[in-house]
Design brief:
With 186 residues, the chain is of the alpha+beta class. It is built from three helices and four strands. Among the domains are: 61 residues, no CATH class; 68 residues, no CATH class.
Length: 186
């Protein structure tokens, strides 16, 4: 299907379609990956900065933005003004407040108090991850259980109160990986 036909079938706004169709197409051999939102990355990504990280340059898509950036292709995180043409809103930064239930995850299982960490029991999200599963309507957490010794799993309905369900990887525990570990990502 040609670009014009594809866009007309996908986007009902005729004006947007026409503007998009008039935007010049990058040559087929253009360097760099074309992202789903129309932004083309440079051939070398991430770019190497000649002076190191202290000489950061503006992102290429800010210096040379595409004529149109579709925002209906996924979630958008508005942390800057890149996708905002105009607004009457003001940014307000709120001070974080301490929650008396903190820490929300505690080393309360025997396997989180390994021989290596008996004096320093460990139950913490290190580099693992906390994700919201919309299908199950649960926050799911993978965390370091015991100092560099294993990975555990916990879940929560509110992101504050966590349960550690018994799983079948190591029967009767919430351990999902019973191997020495340091930094791991789910």
């Amino acid at each position: 299907m040609r670009r014009r036909e594809l866009l007309k079938s996908a986007l009902p706004a005729a004006a947007l379609i026409e503007e998009w169709l008039q935007a010049p197409l990058p040559p087929p051999s253009a360097p760099g990956e074309l992202l789903y939102n129309g932004i083309r990355l440079p051939a070398e990504w991430p770019p190497r900065l000649p002076g190191g990280i202290d000489t950061a340059e503006p992102a290429p898509y800010i210096v040379h933005p595409p004529k149109i950036i579709p925002v209906d292709v996924g979630r958008q995180l508005f942390v800057d003004d890149f996708l905002i043409d105009e607004t009457t809103l003001q940014r307000v930064f709120h001070r974080a407040s301490y929650d008396p239930r903190s820490p929300v995850l505690r080393p309360d299982r025997p396997w989180e108090r390994t021989a290596a960490s008996r004096r320093q029991p460990v139950a913490m999200v290190f580099s693992d991850g906390v994700w919201f599963d919309p299908q199950d309507r649960l926050f799911k957490m993978w965390y370091m259980g015991g100092l560099k010794t294993r990975t555990g799993y916990a879940e929560s309905e509110d992101g504050v109160s966590w349960t550690k369900p018994a799983l079948d990887v190591v029967p009767g525990t919430n351990i999902v990986l019973d191997l020495p570990r340091d930094s791991s990502t789910v």
